[in-house]
Amino acid sequence: MAGAIIENMSTRKLCIVGGILLVFQVIAFLVGGLIAPSPTTAVPYMSVKCIDVRKNHHKTKWLMPWGPNHCKKLKDFDEAVSRQIEANDIVFAVHVPLPTKEMSPWFQFMLFIMQLDIAFKMDNDLKENAEVTLDVSLAYRDDMFSEWEEIAHAIENRKLKCTFSSPKTLESEGRHYDCDFLPFMEIGSVAHKYYLINIRLPVNERKGINVGIGEIKDIRLVGIHQNGGFTKVWFAMKTFLTPSILIIMVWYWRRITLMTRAPVLLEKVIFALGISMTFINIPVEWFSIGFDWTWMLLFGDIRQGIFYAMLLSFWIIFCGEHMMDQNERNQLSGYWKQVGPIAVGSFCLFIFDMCERGVQLKNPFYSIWTTEVGTELAMAFIIVAGICLCLYFLFLCFMVFQVFRNISGKQSSLPAMSKARRLHYEGLIFRFKFLMLITLACAAMTVIFFIVSQVTEGHWKWGDITIQVNSAFFTGIYGMWNLYVFALMFLYAPSHKNYGEDQSNGDLGVNSGEELQLTTTITHVDGPTEVYKLARKEAQE
């Protein structure tokens, strides 16, 4: 009778916990879908062709496309030919943002891609595998009257990938090639109000610079930055979730330190997962509003990489610790074959990120994909990381298969066991299946929302209500993995309650060798975990 009462109470507790987590999960999605705007905004810019007249005592080297001190402009290149203006004297100028607008630190980053408008001409055809050389400069100022301050200057090369659908005849002259977008620039902070980009296409026929690139008519840029409204919602979520995870983490570790035994491997890994989640949550981005921290994008990548590496390691160790008859347990060294690919893959991705965003800290125009050596190096790192991910997936599937096979064997022999011993094994089985279900649900929701955010237009409109799908994806998935870690620490925290002598090993009739196998996950001597209690593992006579 008492066992049935405890079973009902435990089931009710589990339902309450699951319901509370579900409510918070729905709130996380609704915050992004109904409150936050779209995560990013794309703004097209058309460059203005300016005449560089510094040789005639121009006051500044920065050429403005508009405003009171705008440059001398060219309508098109036909005008340049008629006025005998050389290509080296033409500068493509772009002012960011557009007139009457200002940039803001809430935009967090700026990413620019470039498209060249190249016209076909019989005597100036675009060669195969052509490469354009760009002499680019970036400057900033915080009001409309200050002098421009240089941020970066570089000479970069970009490979042109263009197709021409019409036959290359005289009748086709003037038609434009269909060219791919080119990576242009990325900055990890938006600390200033105004930015100016000057682009030159230096021509040197003797060295073959910018020869055989066709007739470039215009240069277009597309600037992408994070929306300020989304940034504020994102910061608010981080600020709220940081103390939430910190509190449950402190509570979890305090429960462990109250035990008379040392922490077991699974408990240590869960705690490490909580630390990595807290590392992501800490809203250091607030400082980027007042400081020009261009390294925030790289820092964010490193934080995410640490969390994902810990999450993948946790899944492996969780499966291994639930192989109930495995001898080598509670030792990290026993998982080197499975954890090794995670470490190698994470290291490769870290090196790749340092070669890309690490270099961009000094040169925002740099891209590892613009050279053959850089492309091969980047592909090598990505391929090695992909191979490690495949090996990890195979190891994980094999371990999950082993656990389920072990579970099937134990379930067939459960009725013949003593009550206490049977409840021990039922606890292991319940915990594994429960977490596997949550893990699969989280992974499925991540994949589903990612696909939906890619195939939809970015928002759904139901009557007067507009749901931002992409924002809901970011806030919902971010909240979901926080709840996942929260649930892990709550459900796997050992209890500090004192249970009577009647539940000792001797009275339960459990063999000491079998009990030692169970102590890596159950540890009845020091009290059961919350999941153990919720699954009626503490049946009382």
TrEMBL record:
GO terms for molecular function: Wnt-protein binding. InterPro entries: WLS-like_TM, WLS_GOLD, Wntless. It is found in: Golgi apparatus membrane. The chain crosses the membrane at residues 233-253, 265-284, 296-318, 339-359, 379-407, 428-452, 472-493. GO terms for cellular component: Golgi membrane. It holds the Pfam family WLS-like_TM. Keywords: Developmental protein, Golgi apparatus, Membrane, Transmembrane, Transmembrane helix, Wnt signaling pathway. It is a multi-pass membrane protein. Residues 227-496 form the Wntless-like transmembrane domain. Belongs to the wntless family. This is WLS protein. It comes from Furnarius figulus.
